[in-house]
Amino acid sequence: MAANGAKGSDSRPVFFFDIDNCLYSKACNIHDEMQKLINKFFCKHLDLNTEDAHMLHQKYYKEYGLAIEGLTRHHKIDPLEFNYEVDDALPLDKILKPDPKLRKLLESLDTSKVKPWLLTNAYVNHGKRVVQLLGIEDLFEGITYCDYGKVPLVCKPNQEMYDKAEKEAGAPSTEQCYFVDDSHLNCTHAQARGWTTVHLVEPGIPIPRVPASRYLVSNLEELRIHFPHLFKSQESNNA
Ligand SMILES: [Mg+2]
Question: What domains are there in the chain, each with its CATH number?
């Protein structure tokens, strides 16, 4: 991945990609593995039984978009300790493999017209580990992540996080931002901000009654259909 940092003359719009359950399928069950580790963390550090741990975890997730946010706000938990026992403890190398189809899709983005950028609520270790395992880390120009070393945490769907992302990626304006995420909440807030937002809802997952954003796709391949101007033309693809 290239170093973060915008060049003054760079007027390309930015395409922000969420990482977890977006660049790989929910069917990988990383989400489930993570839920188990988070619940274990709640039990251990808050001295809760499994049921209460699960309920509190869900409550924080709904309220803040991130379990760790509730933990730091209400329980003085060190986010880096959480990261160590949850995200870094995930057996990702056993689950994720290079994804040639995804790589091809990202390679066909015309980077003279758009800047691909990662935007995650995970800490940087986890974000980078996932894209490395998927074999696509060189196709993004940077990453905006939730800095677990700084409390209070700044994460999606907080506008502060979207603002931070725009600045770090060097977006020419708020209107020049594209975004894809599997989270309804994250998409709703990005759409409200004025980003061109795509909610990824994988097949088998219920379509939300209230759309989160202007666009809805069931697969990242559909980005080609909605935003053909951001992709290389077919001839140069086949060349
Ligand atoms: Mg996600």
Answer: 14-24+96-238 (3.40.50.1000), 30-93 (1.10.150.450)
